[in-house]
């Protein structure tokens, strides 16, 4: 501890980001041209079905998408995708994948 802040001591795992935020944003909007970014930030993400791992921060983008149907705007549910800041070629993770058993709004029964 140094002045009340935890400081990692060598030897150990060191992480240096190599992917710029602008590159992540360009890739994101190229693959989601109708996206409306709600927020984005660096977060530690533990992937599904992993009980222990060395976490690296990932660039997470919360967004929805807008489409026009019969002249009216329709927006999708919010999605969360995370991008590696170490490897630009790594596929993004969908942190809120759709539930294939979802049948709609349960309040509408």
Can you characterise this structure?
The protein has 109 residues and is mainly beta. The protein has one domain. It is 10% helix and 32% strand. The chain has one helix and five strands. Strands 1, 2, 3, 4 and 5 form a five-stranded antiparallel beta sheet that branches. The protein is globular. The N and C termini lie far apart (56 Å). The relative contact order is 0.20. The model has no long low-confidence stretch (mean pLDDT 85).
Strand residues, percent: 25-35%
Question: What is Rg?
Answer: 18 Å
Count of spatially separate domains: 1
Q: What structural class do the secondary elements suggest? A: mainly beta
* Helical coverage, percent range: 10-25%
Order of helices and strands: HEEEEE
Approximate shape: globular
Number of strands: 5
Residue-averaged pLDDT: 85
Summary?
By secondary structure, this protein is mostly beta strands. Helices cover 10% and strands 32% of the residues. It has one helix at residues 21-31, and strands at residues 35-44, 57-69, 72-75, 79-84, 93-94.
Task: Provide the descriptors you would attach to this structure in a database record.
109 residues; mainly beta; five-stranded antiparallel sheet; 1 helix; 32% strand; globular
Write the topology of this structure.
Layout: H1 21-31, E1 35-44, E2 57-69, E3 72-75, E4 79-84, E5 93-94
